[in-house]
UniProtKB/TrEMBL annotation:
Coiled-coil residue spans: none
Signal peptide: none
Domain Luciferase-like intervals: 16-291
Alphabetical list of PANTHER family matching this protein: BLL6902 PROTEIN, LUCIFERASE-LIKE MONOOXYGENASE
A Pfam family hit: Bac_luciferase
Annotated protein name in UniProt: FMN-dependent luciferase-like monooxygenase
Length: 345
């Protein structure tokens, strides 16, 4: 595959952190997560994403993503800052729009906002929301959020949020888990976010999700280019054994919890656990070959790499980001921002 520096990159490269750590030292966990944004910017990553979780059992430690991203904005100058996802039914959409607009202003217009419905009955109960109405609440709140981020009146005549937002028409993403959901997102003019794995299906995740992406693209009616964000578990290391030492226990434990919680078959072994998370791991060349067979990647505009549910050592996480940028993504046709700038792309 050609990597001529004059070519436009096939996709934007992102990383997603769920802001997880080991033990109770959340200060270190948050500091390390912030450091990943700094390192990723230096490596040329295009976007840094965070996931919102109100309870740790959901797979992450960040309840207030926009506060976190405001701090990341102060530590970086170029990398874009996004959520994948903000749990929209649990938010007041007007207040959320205000937070988004503030971070966007502080960052110089670098915000991307991904929203979704979430799934935790505990989170919905804590916020006094009805889990059975999650899709309806998502649609209602998204309509208000769009109005607010378009600088339109919301809530009452004459009220518009401040600071005045600008240019959010192509920066709103929706996480979906079905073909109809993907078509609905396209009808709303949202970009598409696909999860790292399609849980509960016997078929491989990319075989399940490719029809969803195709439904999204087929339903797209906007004049601008549709955008498809593909989240994938990618953990490169010196070899598979080294990678497994960092990720195997966490992935197996997470797959076991998920199987029990969703009534799925028991996890057979670590390979089964990694398969359920559609994991790409091992030497960079192995990962490149596997991703070249990935069925959704050819239509993706954004490749969003993550380590969750694994919680690798901080040094191992930084090394994995380096390998993703310099060996994996580059071999797939991506170029770091600095190289594109020099080439005038």
């Amino acid at each position: 595959m050609s990597t001529d520096s004059t070519e436009t990159p096939r996709f934007r490269l992102g990383f997603l952190t769920h802001v997880q750590g080991r033990g109770s030292d959340l200060t270190t966990t948050y500091r390390n997560a912030q450091e990943l944004f700094v390192v990723a910017e230096e490596l040329g990553f295009d976007v840094g994403w965070v996931a919102q979780h109100h309870v740790p059992d959901g797979g992450g430690g960040l309840s207030s993503p926009w506060t976190f991203l405001a701090h990341a904005a102060a530590r970086t100058t170029r990398i874009r800052l996004g959520t994948a996802i903000t749990i929209l039914p649990l938010e007041d959409p007007v207040r959320l729009a205000e937070d988004v607009a503030v971070v966007d202003t502080l960052s110089g217009g670098r915000v991307e906002i991904g929203v979704g419905s979430g799934y935790s009955d505990v989170e919905y109960a804590a916020f006094g929301r009805d889990l059975e109405r999650k899709r309806e609440l998502t649609s209602e709140n998204l309509a208000v959020l769009r109005q607010a981020l378009a600088a339109e009146e919301v809530g009452t005549p004459g009220f518009r949020i401040q600071p005045q937002p600008a240019g959010f028409g192509d920066r709103i993403w929706q996480g979906v888990f079905s073909g109809p959901g993907a078509a609905y997102a396209a009808g709303e003019g949202s970009n598409l976010l696909l999860n790292r794995a399609a849980y509960g299906y016997d078929a491989p995740t990319d075989e399940v999700q490719r029809p969803w992406a195709d439904e999204f693209l087929g339903a797209w009616q906007q004049p601008r280019r549709p955008r498809v964000g593909l989240s994938r578990f990618v953990f490169p290391a010196a070899d598979r054994r080294t990678a497994l030492a960092q990720i195997a226990d966490d992935v197996t434990a997470a797959a076991t919890r998920m199987a029990a919680g969703r009534g799925l078959p028991a996890v057979a072994d670590v390979e089964d656990a990694l398969r359920r998370f559609h994991a790409f791991y091992g030497h960079p060349e192995e990962i490149v070959l596997a991703l070249q067979r990935e069925q959704v990647l050819p239509v993706a505009t954004d490749l969003i790499t993550q380590f969750n549910p694994a919680v690798p050592d901080h040094d191992a996480a930084i090394r994995a980001l380096e390998l993703i940028a310099t060996e994996v993504a580059h071999a797939l046709g991506w170029k770091p921002v600095t190289e594109r700038q020099l080439a005038g792309v």
